[in-house]
Amino acid sequence: MKEQIKKHFSRYVAFSDLEIDEIYSKLTHKTFEKKEFLLKEGEICKSNYFLLYGLVRSFYIDNKGNEKITQFALENWWVTNMESYIKNIPSYSSIQAIEKTTVLIVDKLELEKLFKSIPKLERFFRIITENMLIAILRRNDIYLLMRSKDRYDGFMKHFPLFAQRVPQYMIASYLEITPEYLSELRRK
Amino acid sequence: MKEQIKKHFSRYVAFSDLEIDEIYSKLTHKTFEKKEFLLKEGEICKSNYFLLYGLVRSFYIDNKGNEKITQFALENWWVTNMESYIKNIPSYSSIQAIEKTTVLIVDKLELEKLFKSIPKLERFFRIITENMLIAILRRNDIYLLMRSKDRYDGFMKHFPLFAQRVPQYMIASYLEITPEYLSELRRK
Fold first, then answer.
1. Partner residue facing B137 (CB), from A68, A83, A134
2. How far is B87 from chain A (nearest CA, A)?
3. A128 to chain B: nearest residue by CA?
4. A interface with B, Cβ–Cβ below 8 Å
5. Residue A128 lies inside a defined structural domain of this protein
6. Is residue B17 part of a domain?
7. Which domain holds residue A40?
8. Half-sphere exposure (CA, 13 Å, Cβ side) for B165?
């Protein structure tokens, strides 16, 4: 498990073994069963979650009572509600396990202390945040800007790993198309 | 001008005057006339732009030939095409001045050097990137998730400064509603 963290962190910044040990010692390890919530709407998100294995989704309930999925995340991805986490305000969305999921939890206050003792961790999280931003912008491209058919093709191209594991009806919700139309697109 | 930078940078991280001098010495100062492009679609974006004064928009042309506005930015905001900037790939969008605009240009390679000499600058850009992420997520809320009327109200609430200065037809494009419907909403 520490190896997975070390490999992941070292992709972006060169940390010494001692530094990895220090970071690792501040992380909490937790397993969520399928359908269990990492974060519920209305809670203040105090953590950033690193997925060791499993699959989660972020979603909220719109004013018509429909679930809207805004993000999927799987192994080696980070997930949080950024606005709630940064601003200490209640989260408008929930994070729920789609499969049994094990995460490492980075507590915000612990992370602030780590930033002080290992300043280059700031670099790591700057890069991670840039990558989150790019993922969201790319999702916007898929979601906002395209016809349903193109959205589906975009999703399959950019997120092939999700397409294999996420239930079809959730993909349909994410792409804002009907499950029936998704089946039709898949047959083609 | 250096005062504006100092004030802005000091909002997030405590820099010494010497550090501000060093950062400032690496920034290029440039004025764009109304309608001039900071970045054109297809170019590789090598800079992050800090707006000293003025107003810009990011937009792209969709596959039907329509302009789609994805972002506005004004004084003390940062603007770039993040994916192009990070990944060194051609930008799918353009950045254009709506008003005469003066920016400080942070060159990516210079910034990497600055990160080495002033590591806490990483912290600054981590925070800036988090704020960009939050702004985009909030825009998604406005844009994706709401009826036209709620989109307009959300835009007015979260971005009142833009609402005053951005031409109406651009706000309509940003909100994906017709200019006629926007006028109707404004009258109410």
1. A83
2. 10
3. B126
4. 60, 62, 68, 70, 82-83, 86-87, 92, 115, 119-120, 122-123, 125-126, 129-134, 136-138, 140-141, 143-145, 150
5. no
6. yes
7. 2-118
8. 17
Task: Give the full edge-to-edge strand order of the sheet including B101-107.
Answer: B28-32, B101-107, B47-53, B78-79
pTM check: above 0.80: no
Q: CA-based Rg of chain A, rounded to a whole angstrom?
A: 17
Chain A with chain B: Cβ pairs closer than 8 A: 77
* Residue pLDDT tens, chain A, 188 long: 788 889 999 999 999 999 999 999 999 999 999 999 999 999 999 999 999 999 898 888 877 777 777 788 888 889 999 889 999 999 989 999 988 999 999 999 999 999 999 988 999 999 999 988 887 877 676 655 556 677 788 777 777 777 777 778 777 877 777 788 888 888 87
- Give the CATH number for residue B48: 2.60.120.10
As a residue count, chain B comes to: 188
To test the contact with chain A by mutation, choose from B83, B117, B138, B149 the residue with the greatest count of A C-beta atoms within 10 A, namely: B83
Contact call for A133 and B82, based on CB within 8 A: yes
- Say if A9 falls within a structural domain: yes
Does residue A154 lie within any of the structural domains? no
Which residue on chain A is closest to B135 by alpha carbon? A83
Q: What is the CA radius of gyration of chain B?
A: 17
CA geometry: angle at B65 spanning B89 and B164, to 5°? 85
Q: Is residue A17 within 8 Å of A59, Cβ to Cβ?
A: no
- Number of domains forming the structure of chain B: 1
Amino acid, res. B61: I
Which of B129, B131, B144 lies at the smallest CB-CB distance from A130? B129
| Helices (H) then strands (E): counts for chain A | 9, 8
| Nearest Cα residue in chain A from B116 | A120
Is the Cβ pair B134, A86 closer than 8 Å? yes
Which of B170, B164, B147 lies closest to B69, judged by CA? B170
DSSP B30: E
Say what the ipTM of the complex is: 0.71
